[in-house]
Specification:
Helix content: 40-55%
Shape: flat
Radius of gyration: 31 Å
Oligomer: single chain
Structural class: mainly alpha
Number of strands: 0
Distance between the termini: 32 Å
């Protein structure tokens, strides 16, 4: 809450606190990081710039983009621009170029920022570097051009942009690979077709490959180029690409559909993580077990549900996968699908037999998760599928409680219309109204009061919705509760009243509203302190005066 923090800082500065005056001199909040001020070590400043470039943190890059730091590079010859380009951070890339970064600076392996941007697949980043005057013909130590980098990554949009800028399709590297060879090796049929139409020739692949015939072997990178899939069986490499023809060709040569990588990941899980439903279907048809799991106990259905891959989920369910909680994950797929935010994935799981009431180890259901967000129709879908509207978790909280706490009025309205108990409190005695009051959700507070929620319900600590709203300094929520005739002078287990809690938070508006409503300023808590004593102890001179003190 930066605005609230500045308000406190102003008060502290008025009281003469040295720390507040120091913060003013820094032009920052006490815990606010100001790299241009707080980082004095040159190495730390350089590393911070590199990290900000990778993350696309424009304010930090702007603050640290001194020419010396912009030109700095690591032992591999890569600096801030190379990092931004590789991460596909277009705005950061453009900023660094404006700050003087060498757009054609090669690294130790002669890879340029343009090559790294092409590999990232971000067209805007490629455009920024091309606008800076980068050379399209530059090649790395193996003779690879930016066009080859884009083709190797299967990035059609980047290939199109580089060709439009004048990239030469006929170039070859030191291993006699062309851009078309790289596209074919990556299984990027759309890129291969474009390059072939532009006159490219495959130098290391067969003519059948270039005419679109199905590949029958998995192409691996030649030495000395590194092979990222060196430890994978051919079937695993094929499964990572959504190409059933290639997969079936490998299986036809005797590959076991239930094989796994050396790290114990079944091929079926690799196809699932790649969101390759055609490969998943081909593996299952060939005899892969839908219940196979990795060493952490994750099944293909677990992974697909977490990612919200509805197409893969439907294929798995059609081939016998069971949408139940696995012994080790302790999270039902329906709950995982709710976290992914994909209603279609959840719908597929329910159609496959998943119970809408399934909960994880904490008692959290899919409905509770969805209730915190904006997808009202998703929540209705879960209810229509048998979700229990007042099912509670280990803390005693229902979907309505979570919606109220998240200030999610549309969801609260829908759940209430479906019969949710608006008085269902959690194990601490906090009702949905209290949760909304604590969150400062004034509109939700008003709606629940209109529906008959008790304004003076209290938690096990004796806190009422008014006390919770006052403690947070939530003026509008306090106003709604006072209008509903909430008890202004009730005291909690510590003897605190709403007035005392509002005073302790330093909220002048809430204190004034409570005083105007007739709140008793003389009551004392278990420490024998009245509201005016609390104001004085915290140095709130304006509140001392408002509360009738001297």
């Amino acid at each position: 809450d930066p605005a609230g923090a500045r308000r406190w800082l102003d008060r502290a500065r008025q009281l003469g606190l040295p720390e507040a005056q120091q913060a003013e001199a820094r032009a920052a909040l006490p815990l606010e990081f100001r790299p241009q001020v707080d980082l004095t070590d040159p190495t730390a400043r350089r590393d911070a710039l590199w990290l900000a470039a990778e993350r696309g943190d424009l304010p930090v890059v702007e603050a640290l983009s001194e020419r010396e730091l912009v030109d700095a590079h690591d032992e591999f010859g890569r600096g801030a621009l190379a990092r931004a380009a590789q991460a596909g951070q277009a705005e950061t890339t453009a900023l660094l170029i404006r700050k003087g970064a060498n757009v054609s600076a090669p690294d130790k392996f002669h890879a340029t920022p343009l090559m790294l941007a092409a590999q990232s697949g971000n067209v805007a980043t490629v455009d920024a570097i091309l606008a800076g005057g980068a050379s399209l013909e530059a090649a790395d130590e193996s003779g690879n051009t930016a066009l080859m980098y884009a083709a190797r990554s299967g990035r059609l949009s980047c290939v199109e942009r580089l060709l439009a800028a004048g990239a030469i399709v006929g170039s070859r590297n030191s291993q006699d690979w062309s851009a078309l060879d790289f596209a074919l090796d990556a299984g990027a049929a759309d890129v291969a077709a474009l390059l072939k139409n532009k006159g490219a020739t495959a130098l290391r692949h067969s003519a059948a490959s270039t005419t679109g015939a199905a590949l029958t072997t998995v192409q691996r990178a030649p030495q000395p180029q590194a092979d990222l899939y060196a430890s994978w069986p051919d079937l695993a490499v094929a499964a990572s690409r959504d190409d059933a023809a290639l997969l079936n060709a490998v299986i036809a040569r005797g590959a076991d559909p239930n094989s796994a990588t050396r790290s114990g990941v079944p091929v079926l899980l690799i196809a699932t993580q790649a969101n390759a439903p055609k490969s998943v279907a081909a593996l299952l048809k060939a005899g892969a077990s839908p219940s196979s799991s990795d060493r952490q106990g994750n099944t293909a259905l677990d992974l697909a549900a977490r990612a919200g891959y509805a197409d893969v989920i439907e294929v798995l369910l059609a081939h016998g996968a069971r949408p139940l909680v696995s012994a080790r994950s302790q999270e039902p797929p329906i709950v995982a699908a709710a976290k992914s935010g994909n209603p279609r994935a959840a719908r597929a799981l329910i159609a496959g037999g998943a119970a809408a009431t399934a909960a994880d180890a904490d008692g959290t259901t899919a409905l509770m998760i969805v209730a915190r967000g904006p997808q009202v129709e998703f929540a209705q879908q879960l209810l229509d599928a048998g979700g229990r509207i007042d099912q509670d978790d280990q803390s005693g909280r229902t979907a309505l409680w979570y919606a109220a706490s998240a200030a999610n009025l549309p969801m609260v309205r829908m759940l209430a219309s479906r019969g949710a108990d608006i008085e269902h409190a959690d194990k601490t005695g906090m009702t949905p109204l209290a949760a909304a009051a604590a969150a400062g959700a004034a509109d939700t507070v008003g709606f629940l009061l209109e529906k008959g929620a008790r304004a003076n319900s209290s938690t096990t600590r004796g806190d009422t919705p008014l006390l919770l709203a006052a403690a947070g300094g939530h003026e509008q929520a306090v106003e709604r509760l006072l209008s509903a005739r909430a008890d202004k002078n009730v005291q909690n287990r510590s003897g605190d009243t709403a007035l005392m809690l509002a005073t302790r938070s330093g909220s002048t508006a809430v204190v004034r509203r409570l005083v105007d409503s007739g709140a008793n300023t003389k009551l004392r808590n278990s420490d024998h302190a009245a509201a005016v004593d609390i104001a004085g102890a915290r140095g709130f001179a304006n509140l001392v005066q408002l509360l009738g003190g001297q």
